[in-house]
Amino acid sequence: MKIRIDIDCSPDEARTFFGLPAVESLHKTMVAEIEERLKAGLAAMTPEDMLKTWMPAGVEGFEQMQKTFWSTMTGGKTEREK
Length: 82
Description:
single chain
Protein backbone atom coordinates (compact mmCIF):
# COMPACT_ATOMS: atom_id res chain seq x y z
CA MET A 1 0.00 0.00 0.00
CA LYS A 2 1.35 3.39 -0.97
CA ILE A 3 0.17 6.74 0.23
CA ARG A 4 1.40 9.86 -1.47
CA ILE A 5 0.85 13.34 -0.13
CA ASP A 6 1.84 16.38 -2.15
CA ILE A 7 2.09 19.62 -0.23
CA ASP A 8 2.25 22.80 -2.23
CA CYS A 9 3.65 25.57 -0.05
CA SER A 10 6.31 28.22 -0.15
CA PRO A 11 9.54 27.97 1.87
CA ASP A 12 8.17 30.63 4.23
CA GLU A 13 5.00 28.63 4.84
CA ALA A 14 6.99 25.44 5.48
CA ARG A 15 9.34 27.27 7.86
CA THR A 16 6.36 28.68 9.77
CA PHE A 17 4.66 25.28 9.89
CA PHE A 18 7.74 23.62 11.41
CA GLY A 19 8.30 26.52 13.82
CA LEU A 20 11.63 27.56 12.36
CA PRO A 21 12.76 31.19 12.58
CA ALA A 22 12.67 33.53 9.60
CA VAL A 23 16.27 34.09 8.54
CA GLU A 24 15.81 36.33 5.49
CA SER A 25 16.96 39.50 7.23
CA LEU A 26 19.98 37.71 8.71
CA HIS A 27 20.84 36.28 5.29
CA LYS A 28 20.63 39.70 3.62
CA THR A 29 22.80 41.24 6.35
CA MET A 30 25.44 38.51 6.10
CA VAL A 31 25.59 38.65 2.29
CA ALA A 32 26.00 42.44 2.42
CA GLU A 33 28.80 42.10 5.00
CA ILE A 34 30.60 39.47 2.92
CA GLU A 35 30.34 41.66 -0.18
CA GLU A 36 31.77 44.64 1.68
CA ARG A 37 34.70 42.59 3.03
CA LEU A 38 35.46 41.13 -0.40
CA LYS A 39 35.36 44.54 -2.05
CA ALA A 40 37.60 46.04 0.64
CA GLY A 41 40.06 43.15 0.32
CA LEU A 42 40.19 43.39 -3.47
CA ALA A 43 40.53 47.17 -3.42
CA ALA A 44 43.55 46.90 -1.13
CA MET A 45 45.32 44.35 -3.35
CA THR A 46 47.44 45.00 -6.38
CA PRO A 47 47.17 42.62 -9.34
CA GLU A 48 50.53 41.13 -8.29
CA ASP A 49 49.23 40.45 -4.76
CA MET A 50 46.12 38.78 -6.18
CA LEU A 51 48.23 36.53 -8.38
CA LYS A 52 50.40 35.57 -5.40
CA THR A 53 47.27 34.76 -3.40
CA TRP A 54 45.75 32.65 -6.17
CA MET A 55 49.03 30.94 -7.11
CA PRO A 56 51.11 30.87 -3.91
CA ALA A 57 53.95 28.84 -5.39
CA GLY A 58 54.13 31.15 -8.39
CA VAL A 59 55.20 29.96 -11.81
CA GLU A 60 57.21 27.07 -10.38
CA GLY A 61 54.08 25.65 -8.78
CA PHE A 62 52.20 25.96 -12.06
CA GLU A 63 55.01 24.17 -13.92
CA GLN A 64 54.99 21.39 -11.32
CA MET A 65 51.22 21.04 -11.72
CA GLN A 66 51.65 20.76 -15.52
CA LYS A 67 54.32 18.07 -15.09
CA THR A 68 52.05 16.12 -12.75
CA PHE A 69 49.14 16.28 -15.19
CA TRP A 70 51.40 15.30 -18.09
CA SER A 71 52.86 12.34 -16.23
CA THR A 72 49.36 11.18 -15.26
CA MET A 73 48.14 11.39 -18.86
CA THR A 74 51.17 9.56 -20.27
CA GLY A 75 50.98 6.71 -17.82
CA GLY A 76 53.67 8.00 -15.48
CA LYS A 77 56.46 8.11 -18.08
CA THR A 78 58.69 11.15 -18.13
CA GLU A 79 60.37 12.60 -21.21
CA ARG A 80 63.62 10.79 -20.33
CA GLU A 81 61.98 7.37 -20.13
CA LYS A 82 60.44 7.54 -23.62
